[in-house]
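lol so apparently i was supposed to do this last week
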Amino acid sequence: MSDIQLPEAYRYALTQQLGDEEGARFLHSYNQPRTFGLRINTLKLELGSPVFHKLEHLFSLRAVPWCPEGFYYEESTRPGRHLYHAAGIYYIQEPSAMSAVQLLDPQPGETILDLAAAPGGKSTQIAARMQGKGVLITNEIHPQRAKILAENIERLGIRNAIVTQATPAELSAKFPLAFDRIMLDAPCSGEGMFRKDPAAIQEWSEASVQFCAARQRDILHDAIAMLKPGGTLAYSTCTFNRQENEENMAYVLQTYPFMELIREHRIWPQQSEGEGHYVALLRRVDEGDEMLASPSGKRSRKASSKQRGANHAAMVQQEFEAWAKDHLRGFEPSGTYLSFGEAIYMLPHSRTMNPDADLLKGLKTPRPGLKLGVAKKGRFEPDHALAAALKPEEAIRRFNLASDSADGSAYLRGETLSVPDSIKGWTLVTADNFPLGWGKASGGQLKNHLPKGLRLQL
Ligand code: SAM
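anyway here it is w/ S-adenosylmethionine bound
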């Protein structure tokens, strides 16, 4: 018998679904320890590089069979508490959850939506595959979770993501037929969470499965409305029942004859090392309405407000560029500058989407692109997101620490550091050459500019 007390109705349903023998093996998997995984952020670290081998050793990494960047780690090594985690060179992610983006297969330059994205496991995986090219709109309905999503997008140094906090219906009204690929990792009854979070068992009931399945169908309608003709949708859950998985896909195929199912794939905890996941890949095979394919093309704009906005953006852009001339080299993000008050962002663009203030109007956007900094009365202050997104060689002034040094931990605690007198002004602080954040140096002291909310007691 498992220590985990499963509801009788759940044991019965899964035994019915899997048959007696496989059902027994499935229920027995609750006696096995849960799995732990991390995914290397290939935007910052190359697989096979010396630091990668160091991580292999530090965290006893073993390859996840279905994801080349995915690895199991030993729980006791606690990679989430390491300075490398703060530097964004990996993301802690449940191993089976890595299978969904693998199936979606995002490509650089595309226009992609992650519709239910927080805390950001799948978005950060999509962004790594996009290699900074194209547009990734990453959305989360709940404000607090959207904030965590934005922090993770920043920590991993992602340049081409726009974080929105909207309902699926608000997004589909804004972006009809707009995306090459959509990831829908749907809110579900979480049957695959029971080993990781036994409290989730208390929330399970047959009624909650029905409720989740109906909510997923609602979200699927909006997701399909946003797919370009020929576009693909990956639908995933971390739950095992058929209502929220295969039956919802059958519903989609029946309701939308222009959708075809390309593949369905399940990871079961009794068969593989992982907590379990369901993924389906669907394609839209109709022609759609080409007129709607470019959301930025079909909007009318008020020339005067557009002009005022453009003037302000141009002014803030000049302030950033003047600062960048003295502090950055070879940093040439392509996109559109956007100013929000004193703050300036770089919005990404793709072959078919060129987001600007008009397109985002009316949407809550906790992070409308890469935040470059704020222009305060003629003085430009770079943002932490810019530091995290830089390659170390793109900063003219750097102060490098060893990841295992006392100074490394002191920086993450928010302390002032002693630096050589020759270092002056805005300086990128790095650990083993991975950006940690900004500091401002004068008189042999480096004032710490790591945002207060990101300071850690390592
Ligand atoms: N994709 C995320 C990742 O890989 O880190 C995990 C997403 S989680 C399975 C599902 C998300 O859907 C949650 O963040 C939840 O807040 C959000 N959600 C809940 N209700 C929703 C709704 N009605 N529409 C869209 N998203 C919803």
